[in-house]
Structure prediction request, 527 residues.
Amino acid sequence: MKKVREANMKFRTWMSTTLMCLCATLALTIPLSAQDNPGHPHHKYKLMQVGTFGGPDSDGVVGPAFSDLNNFNGQGATIGEAATNTADPFAPNCWYDCFVAHAFKFENGTTTDLGALPGTNSSAAFGINNHGLVVGASENGLIDPSTGYPEYHAVAWRNGVLSDLGTLGGTVSQAFAVNDQGQVVGVAANAIPDQYAYGLGPCTTWFCTGTSVTTQQRAFASHGGELHDLGTLGSGNDSAAYFVNAGGQVAGISYTNATPNSTTGLPTQDPFFWSRSTGMVDVGSLGGTWGITYGFNQQGQVTGQSNLAGDQIYHPFLWDRGTLTDLGTLGGDSAYANWLNDAGDVVGASDLAGNQVGHGFLWHKGVMSDLGTLPGFEDSFALAINAGREIVGASCGSAECNGPESAFLWENGGPMVDLNTLVPPSSLHLRLAYAIADSGEILAYATLPNGDVRVAVLAPDGDCDNDCAERVAASESGPATQAGQATRVTVSNAPISGKGAKGRRPSLFGPRPASAATARRNVELVQ
Prediction:
């Protein structure tokens, strides 16, 4: 399996990645009831782009996973961050490419700048609930004397009012998720020195470097503003809470001891499940010393990936009420899971036999099925699935993902369809779809012709009409023409173990070109 070029990324580089590709498109036979009606038309979609606050890009994939739990609320609002045109005062230790960025909320075609803590500071929104409570993180204007990096705190926006949630005694914290009861979870530093805190994750810190945190990081839960340390597994010193569901159950990761392993150079890390009645429960391992939580549902099921013995290969898992299941692969050595729905259907990507190429998969009732690729593409990875078993992700045109890349929708037993064919023609090219709501709304990354990045919001707009059907038919002959440059969306190869174990998670973006200075401030409906 080929490695891909590394990108300079902000907080989200905890996504460890290596590309997996396939050279043929597969038509699937999936044991799904939707297959009984293979002629059902796709939806066409209204396309809206989230503008910026004067800078080049808007960005929605934030937090420690592509969490469908918190990307949308019941009113269709979504959150993220967008660049301003203000130079970052903390350069070169910038939040992201040295433009100050602010958290946003997008709702009913309007983007609201949520602001940041007082000063010239960056902020990002990571989660939103059905009451409009938004959580995330903001710089506070101070420099951590032990690291030289800006400090940042977990924050919450309620009715437009920003609150600093503080820390557990250290200098940094982040709030990752919130439920409708107002329970907030995340990670916060205390004041106890810890040489391995930086390795928790991958990347539970704002700047994703080995020097941006020097004290213990602990999973926290908060209800009403006070942070409560959820503890750790075993004798571990560090943990982080990624998800909280409607029942107040929490999922995340924790070191289980304080002794570094020879294969990773770090203490053993396992996913955890937490509830008020059970406390923190070790989800377990598939034999290796490193595991990560990438999905959590309302049933309390946990999915992610876990290294096998030796920490050189990894498999996706599903944990359900104490039972850990190895989901296997599509014939290759390694695979990983990205998300699951409330029925326990899991999506991700896997090596194929030979380990040189790979494909997105759907795991349904014990069977892993290959989702194929878009016509003319070699690679695919599935990022999200909803209750209707609609799946979104991206497909790449080359083994290194250096060429064409398009967002896809898979439904009704396949094959996958290029999302660019289901929206009206525009200057945007949809590169990667990262969330899909049960109601059908989709979030995607898109690029403009100059390479600037936008969050795109797709809303179902009836069945595919004749124009839409013609675009779908035309795309079946090969990759769609791309409006944006192919240099911005990339895939990171941050190792998931000290030996550089393989694993591919879709990244955010590498450095923005200095010339990318123009941007639109307002949200636009693309006709």
DSSP finds two helices and 35 strands in the chain. The two ends are 40 Å apart (CA to CA). The longest helix spans residues 466-475.
